[in-house]
Task: structure prediction
Amino acid sequence: MTVWELVAVAFAGGAAGFINAVAGSGTLVTFPTLLAFGVPPVTANVSNNIGLVPGSVSGAIGWRRELRGQRARTIRLASASAVGGTIGAVLLLVLPEDAFSAIVPALIGLGVVLVALGPRINRRVAAAASGDEPPADRWWLWPATSAAGVYGGYFGAAQGIILIAVLGLGTHDTVHRNNALKNVLSGIVNGIAAVVFIIVVAGGWTDAEIDWVLVGLIAFGSIVGAQVGARVGRRMPAALMRGFIIVVGLTALVVFLVR
Result:
């Protein structure tokens, strides 16, 4: 790869970090960029996934203010993401590559719809609840988060959209605070998947290779992009942020339908 192509990969990592910090689906920027520069698909997939993990951590740090008061919820749902991410990573090793391809567009589409309708649904639930205290998190939040982790561990694209939808319906918190928690949970899932990739490649159990130069460039770009995304996202009105998430989700849906 030329110097300019390497620079482009770093910028793509920055764009992905920004999108992931605000919504999700940043891999739809980096993965096609690597393919366009002639990186083999499997190497591109592995290197891209590992490279975006530091960006997830950066995004969580960037949204740390919105994580205040969510310690118990974060710990509880982190265990769900860890379990789901581990299962998803194992499924990636034992199932055919296109095993989930048929349902990916349906899951993304459902996520977009739920993000759009979430506030209306939650208002009705809150109105129906008795007492002055806000309704507690839904009982199904842990298993739903774990299921999202399975999807993310196996096929990470648009994982953030699905998590935002789950958190939006399962909690009665703001979209900004849910987005902050989403960054933590998706970072856990992506980190587990990255560890599995590294172990599998190092053990010689696959023909895939890790291009550590590309990993470093994407990591650098995604760290910077995630910090910018957190700052911009924090200043977005709730309706605008929700609209941005919906647009990103619809873009991801179109990409998967036409590929």
Summary: The chain has a mean pLDDT of 84. Residues 31 and 64 are 28 Å apart (CA to CA). DSSP finds eleven helices and no strands in the chain.
